[in-house]
Design goal:
The chain is mainly β and 192 residues long. The chain has 2 domains: 76 residues, no CATH class; 94 residues, no CATH class. The protein has 2 helices and 13 strands; from the N terminus they run ββββββαββαβββββ. It has a 7-stranded antiparallel beta sheet. Strands 1-2-3 form a 3-stranded antiparallel beta sheet, with no helix packed on it.
Length: 192
């Protein structure tokens, strides 16, 4: 599942089985960096509204409601259609081992924002880390995880996996990242 700025749920995967779309969440903690799926629900593909955006990108539409709070006693609800994009995952192209990848540091830029790719370290500034320590919060950390041969930079916030950035390919000179909500759907990260 591709998350955008308005998506606050945990990462989700889907698989197709004949006319069924099977939805999966991930177990809370990866075992030795290997992710495991847990079935969430199943729905009918033929009864769903969907669209193939590109060869490896699929959009699923759902009906829902938006709520606007006006005051403590008044709110407005509107029926709305929500769209969720999904990107096909394929095994990451690499000759590197997991340990070699975890030692690499990259930076990428998407939508004017710099994204550091640094594994197993707190990504917050030392000042924020001090504040978080007093508040007994873990902060933000990026872990290298793998699902079905695809490596992901999993971003954890206070011990909860929030976002997955997929690696299409990775070597010592560059990493091709996928899973972004807008074009370009892929970004090239360069070594720091």
């Amino acid at each position: 599942m591709i998350k955008d700025a308005d998506t606050y749920c945990y990462p989700e995967f889907i698989e197709f089985d004949n006319d069924e779309i099977q939805h999966y969440n991930l177990v809370h903690e990866a075992e030795n960096g290997l992710l495991k799926k847990v079935k969430l629900l199943t729905e009918s593909l033929s009864k769903s509204k969907h669209k193939l955006l590109e060869e490896n990108r699929f959009r699923l539409f759902r009906r829902g409601k938006t709520f606007t709070v006006i005051s403590n006693t008044e709110s407005i609800s509107k029926d709305r259609e929500f769209a969720t994009d999904y990107q096909r995952i394929e095994p990451t192209k690499t000759n590197l081992t997991k340990n070699e990848i975890q030692k690499l540091e990259f930076k990428a830029e998407w939508n004017g924002e710099e994204i550091p790719i640094i594994f197993n370290k707190n990504l917050y500034s030392p000042t924020i880390q001090k504040v978080n320590k007093r508040l007994k919060k873990e902060g933000q950390k990026m872990m290298l995880e793998n699902l079905q041969g695809t490596y992901f930079a999993s971003i954890y916030e206070d011990g909860q996996r929030r976002t997955l950035i997929g690696f299409k390919e990775i070597d010592n000179d560059k990493a091709v990242l996928f899973g972004f909500p807008e074009k370009p759907y892929e970004v090239i990260a360069i070594p720091v």
